[in-house]
Amino acid sequence: MLIKRDILEAIRRGDIDLQFRRWSRATVKPGGTLKTAVGILNIGAITELGEDEVALADVRRAGFSDLPDFRSWLQTMKPGYLCKIEISYAGDDPLLALRERRNLSLDELNQVNGKLDAMDKRAGSAWTTATLELIAQNPGRLAAELAALAGKDKAKFKSDVARLKALGLTISLEQGYRLSPRGATVFGARHL
Fold first, then answer.
1. What pLDDT was estimated at residue 149?
2. CA angle 174, 34, 55 (to 5 degrees)
3. Can you give the residue ranges of every domain in the chain?
4. 97 DSSP assignment
5. What is the mean pLDDT of the chain?
6. CATH level 2 (architecture), domain 5-92
7. Is the pLDDT of residue 127 over 70?
8. Which of 41, 50, 69, 145 has the fewest CB atoms within 10 Å around its CB?
């Protein structure tokens, strides 16, 4: 579920607590969470409804000024069933704090290295260290260029970087990537 940055900020402030979507299939479920650019969102009740059942109070809770404003937006959406989704800000993404931690205990370092070694073993190659090194040497370089240097197609390379990002080791930039402080520590330890 993609949400524009200004709407995310309003959700974080508590100004917006509903979203509307047209779906062919739901991309979130009640009780779940959603990672976004501003942090984690809680997903509450999801109610399917007809366009004529949408109330003015609800469109205002979703950030629209009135029903015509909502209907105008709705006309730009893809076909599908209409849902009203309760949403709230749960807090910062814990991955953000994790990736900023440069000082790791020996136990933490061993744990991360164990995960990287397991990823390498499953793939049959030491791709994790090679990818960290490529990013360390080329911060901000286009993913397509990094993929070519790694001898991989762009989609596979981006998928690999996403796996490293999930461990708090890389940061996606507007263009390319860089090692996070945690990633720099782990990379440095793997090169000792």
1. 95
2. 110
3. 5-92, 95-190
4. H
5. 93
6. Roll (2.30)
7. yes
8. 50
